[in-house]
Each structure stands twice: as C-alpha cells, then as structure tokens.
Amino acid sequence: MSSYETLARERRRAHALYLELRALGLDVLVEEVPQEPSCYRVVVGGLRSLSPAHAERVVRCVRGNETELARIILAGPWNPDLEAIRREGSIR
User: Fold this and answer.
1) Do the Cβ atoms of 40 and 67 come closer than 8 Å?
2) How many domains does the chain have?
3) Looking at residue 1, what is its pLDDT?
4) What is the DSSP letter of 37?
5) Residue (of 34, 24, 27, 36) closest to 69 by Cα position
6) pTM to 2 decimal places
C-alpha cells in the first residue's frame, strides 16, 4: 500500500471518528500546545455525559487518531454528514 493510500485511510478513519464524536454531542476542539507553537492537541468536551468505560474508549480512539483529527478540525468548518448521522442516532 502506498503512503498516499495509508494517509487517505487514516484521514477517512479520523473523519468518521469526528462525525461520531459530534453525533454523541461531544465538543471536539484543537488547542495549540503552549510549549511547542506548531504542535496541537485535540480536546474533547462533554465526556462526563458518557459512562466512564465509554469515555475511556473515546479517549483512546482520539489519542490514536489525534494528528488526523487535528488536521480535519483545523481545515475549517464542515460536516456535511453530521445532520444525517444525528437523524439516524448515535453510533456506538
């Protein structure tokens, strides 16, 4: 598999994760790391609305996809599929 295919697969995975997090009603933000000006971290708000086990799984997923999630969020406002997902219900 080429590096482009790998990047595209990771981008699709992060996009799906972003939409799932938003469908759960969570806030997904990017913050700049103060010690490293060109480094960002993803912050998820609203985790307390989930059970502790579910929140832990979400945190693991976000950490595993943090770079691509940050790229997607920093790319600008978009989420054309979000309304469709909300109509169907959250993905577990």
Assistant:
1) no
2) 1
3) 62
4) T
5) 27
6) 0.75
